[in-house]
Write a structure and sequence with these properties.
By secondary structure, this protein is of the alpha+beta class. It is built from 4 helices and 4 strands. It has helices at residues 2-17, 22-67, 74-87, 93-96; strands at residues 97-106, 116-124, 164-173, 186-195. A 4-stranded antiparallel β-sheet has the order 2-1-3-4.
Length: 215
């Protein structure tokens, strides 16, 4: 009986000391964690790149729209939006985003009606987003935009006799590697503004009779 017990004890000690297969088991346990970290890191990079693209689109649109001298034509606006599509081609911006381009100007009124107005406004992109500060003609007959356009405390105004190209860009980011973690996506939004350069007529023309990209 003692010999049998001793034999069993030796067997158990042998099993306890066996290390073959431990590395494979450890790898099997750590692989899901490694994969999650890898894909999570790549997704963070994609999100950062999307932020950079959306910000660049806002800057590009405001800057290019402000460069049209003397007068801006609807054809110029088409070109500005085409440039935005080019910048956002890598993130499918035309299908997942929205640009609101507004011409902010003094409303020319006096007294308690003096303020800024959205003289004209154009939109581009398939995403359904309303202008955050009102549609075209907001502030034209009242002081609704007396403080200008922009977040509270950071509003922007146009000087007398000129205009500011104010741009709102919204984009719905959907994870590409791990879409299940964010089924409805994440909304990215940027705003920027540029003064117009030497433009004497702030009302857009339409010499080619193009469809107006109204909002």
């Amino acid at each position: 009986m003692a010999e049998f017990a001793d034999r069993i004890w030796r067997k158990l000690r042998g099993i306890a000391r066996a290390d073959r297969g431990i590395a494979m088991v450890e790898f099997a346990f750590s692989l899901p964690i490694f994969v999650a970290l890898l894909f999570g890191g790549l997704e963070v990079i994609n999100l950062v790149m999307a932020h950079m693209r959306v910000n660049q689109i806002a800057i590009t649109v405001a800057d290019n729209a402000g460069r049209a001298r003397e007068v801006i034509d609807e054809a110029d606006i088409y070109e500005v939006f085409a440039g935005a599509d080019q910048v956002g081609s890598g993130i499918d911006f035309a299908e997942q985003g929205r640009i609101v381009l507004s011409s902010l100007q003094p409303n020319g009124l006096s007294g308690n009606k003096a303020g800024q107005m959205i003289n004209w406004q154009r939109c581009h992109g398939a995403m359904d987003v309303e202008p955050a500060y009102g549609p075209q003609d907001t502030g034209r007959t009242n002081n609704r935009l007396a403080a200008g356009m922009g977040p509270a405390g950071k509003q922007i105004k146009a000087a007398e006799g000129t205009a500011v190209m104010f741009v709102e860009v919204t984009y719905r980011y959907v994870p590409t590697l791990l879409p299940s973690i964010m089924k409805d996506g994440m909304t990215l939004r940027y705003e920027t503004a540029f003064n117009v350069r030497e433009r004497t007529n702030q009302n857009p023309t339409n010499t080619q009779h193009l469809p107006v990209k109204s909002c």
